[in-house]
Records
---
Amino acid sequence: MAYLYRRGNVWWARLSVNGRRTRLSTGCEKETDARKWAKAEEGRRVSGEPVLPRADRVKYDEAAADLRSYYVTSGEREPVEAGWRLRRLDRYFAGRRLASIGPGDSTAYAQARQGQGASNATINRELGVLGRMLRLAHENNKLLRIPMLRKLEEAAPRSGFFETEQYEAVRRRLPEDARVACDLAYTFGWRMQSEVLPLEWRHVDLKAATVRLEPGSTKNDDGRTVYLTPALLAALSAQRERVKALEKRLGRIIPCVFPHLTGAKRQSVGLRHVRVLGERRQDLRRCWVTACTAAGVPGRLKHDFRRTAVRNLERSGVSRSVATKITGHRTEAVYRRYAIVNDQDLREAAAKLAGAQSGGTVADRAGQEGRK
């Protein structure tokens, strides 16, 4: 039987179930309401229902901290990516009680983000992080019910890719080391930020002409090994010589394949985003934008290499089972999204049809003349 007592204007209950004592606020100012609440709470505990003593007080901030810790320990998601998505959510939901977040809030959040210029796809990714947070809170007995979050309709996937002449025009305007990185992404469809630029020389075997990505270093955690084409082998060999020259100049080993070949010798105190000689390149953004603009194809994305590689593998007749091992697509359904047909492909198909129809007509006529 619960023992009731008052703290200020609110009644509290001291419960004892199976020898375990708990003190809880009933949230009621009337004794009759407090007794009803205490009886209902005792019934839930005896029947074995989940006991959520703090569910009505758990705030978004606590659930967000739990999710950040979960991502760090489990490796389910890249903490950096999740961090900047969570920062967007923090600005809107910080201080809110978790149990008060519902479908209407997801709609209001989407409307607010649209007003800031965010795309529907970006908003959906952020709502996905919010949904994972709510599910984790439910698993941790901090939320009784998981609300339904309504997502937005997204635009069709981007269909950009590089024709050979376009890529060559951009490539000529890139620094030598950036050309090698782009050649890898263009040939194998590897992700520039997470798979090409982080490469180290221990992943490259110039004698065997192979490059490997270790398990756990890719987006889907699968390892990959590819054999280099003669052009790529020559390009990586030249890059190795450039890095060796830099190692001799600095007097130390440089493990990364794509370090800064120019820049300051050390990081200046108080300055951020300074290129330090010998440190790994984090991005090719500046030289990429400059090269694309000069080549007459501004606004192109490095991720277009991934679509281009898939299309080139399809055109070359490489089987999809092999192609997916090269590009790193875990399922064929995702791979097919990148197997894009462009206007040139359609023109070639029309020309082939025209030739077939023309040849058929001539053959029919010849057959008719023979029968006569």
---
Amino acid sequence: MLTRRRFLIGAGGLAGSGAVAVAVDREVASGTTVPLVPLGSQPHGLPVRQHAWDATLNRDAHGNPIAPRFDRLFLFDVSGKPTPAHARMLEAALRTLERAFKWGPSGLLFTAGWGPAYFEQVLGVSTPIPTARSLSDFELPSIDHYHLCLHFACDDDSRLSAVEGALLHGERFAGIDGSVKVTEALRWRETRTGFVGTGLPAANQNVGGIPPGKHVPASSPLYMGFKSGFLKNQATEDDVTIAHGPFAQGTTLQVSYMRLRLDSWYQELSERERVARMYSPETTVADVARFTTDAESNPGQLGQAIKRYGVIGHSQTNARARRNGRPLIIRRDFNTVDGGQAGLHFVSVQRSIEDFVKTRTAMNASHAQLQNPAITDTVNNGINDFIFVLKRANYILPARAQRSFPLLPGRAKALE
């Protein structure tokens, strides 16, 4: 029998206007020479916050935001010792993309996040965010130590493919005037891909982790068959924005790569039982069909769920982690078939990483088994038995003006 621990261990092992003359930065480290590229202008009217996406999103009939349909995460380390030319190369590329595409899912959305290793190992300063860690007794994630995470999203997957080719290989494509290649300043390490939206999971269900057949509903935006991006079960962008300090108007980013194992989810549980684990045992299938702006599951009934039903719901436990009645995080997660396996890239933004930790801890509901032995860390405990965290990392998302090599000496002058 494949135990959860053995599964985790095995899975963890897989897996231009305003241009200036071109010059060369003479400060070289580790054999790396980074050209001082033309910077180019930036379009007027872009939000100060990198993470300001919500105003650009389409809305459904109830006002719920509709996430961009396709996402990619590009993960990098800094090449050599960074100089102002490194910052200029990255900023020039991002500004070129901003000039080429409207800010929004019909054009392009993106953020640049920097990990603890960038601050501590590259700059030799204290990191503003903690290194990621395991957050339960039943997960064994590999902790990523990448310096930079670029998250791109839009409604056109071919555009994201073109962006990847341009950033990593210098390929040209329609709409881009000049090169956006960044690999002289940054060493590419990994790309993660995915999708979210009605029909996409069903069209991509012939992968490992999902039983044969047509189990994923055609109407579902995510593999587990339910909608998560309701208006009231997300924090607002104001909620997650850092108010003061060197990273004011920024936020923090958390990225986890989760493998899904949905054979028993679809083959052994009825729809009613899946609803109980996703929402609460008091929630009915008919209730779910009536949800408009929130996935309603009363956290005040958690004790009843534990003692009477011996089953608790994912939404029910998560709803305990709120501030002023609102969640602490904004989910920007998406499903994936990376490696030929059904998975979830759980991407969230929150004011502090501690807000993510609080949310994840609430999801664990580790106290429940002390009150009813029918509930364990994973059995009858929300969706914990069906998700396996392979990788995790934390990043900080500075304000847009600080996004390229934040805190690097000399960067401000190079970006004038």
---
Amino acid sequence: MNPLGLAWGLGKDVASGAWRFAAAWRRWGQENRAEIDQSYRDELASLKEDLEGAETEEERASIRQKMKELREEQRRFYQARRDLLLSKALVERMTPKGTITTGAPQLPASERETLRIATTLLQQLQPAIGFADHFLRGNALLEAGDFKGALLEYNAALEISPDEPTALNNRGVALLDLKRYEEALAVFNRSLELRPHDPVTLNNRAAALGRLGRYEEALTDCNRSLDLKPDDPDTLTNRGLTLAGLGRYQEALADHNRSLELRPDNADMLSSRALVLAKLGQQERAFADFARALAAKPGDPDILSDRACALSVAGQWEQSLHDLADAIAGHPPYRAQARNDPDLEPLRTHPEWGPRFWEIVGREDES
């Protein structure tokens, strides 16, 4: 599934010691460059007034330093914004959805090269030197599907400002995509301590809880998120996954249907609905959804993993193993997930196909 609820605009809760990045965070959501420039001019004018009214040389020196830092922030903010927009533009040129996994073997050489440029672009430019730089680079890498690179940037940002809730949330998203669910849960918990009523982070925490099998807790977070942000398609999909984990498949299907009404033809949502349809015995509809999903995102490991589960439920052992092997090739952390996935239990224990399953997945003590 795509990164959930990535927050591009930063809020007002600025951590102590990072005052000079606050303006950049607020400005991030503004598209009109003239408005951004005016906000910088206003702040500089205010500092100039403070300078004229300063009574001591020490006060004047402090204000001059703030003016210097504000001008430097403005320069670095535009640099980071340009880097991010250029990286996003490169990624979005690869497919209509702009979501291809690094190194996916089905990509033509030209698109693989474009992806390489997108994921390394920010590191080739001037080194990141502050919270805003690391944060924005992390967002660009997360958008490009480079979850390890994104995690490194968020770690660096949070070393500078440890209690910024949006950066914590996005770090949790990177961990979630790396299948490091316990770590992601701890990060989301911390973000929600700082910002308890954020619907995006509540939904992300629900996703981590669901992947840990803690479905009742996940359902509580999904419901809280939907109370705050009704009819959000990502949260409806996540609640559908959670309800399916609880065996409440008809309710899960209703949520998936609603999410696809709001976001038709979304590949990840089609894949999630397909797995529920398979569990309801509606195999023809399920595999039609999988076909549509893979047409939009060929070779996507998440979709292949879902289809492997559906095929296992349907008793189509050989094809299930084929999809599972391809999913692991595209994203190795699926090895650990497959060992315990309840949908793959019929395959794991099958007298003929079970041994082949373990050849593909490997034992825990061998990994």
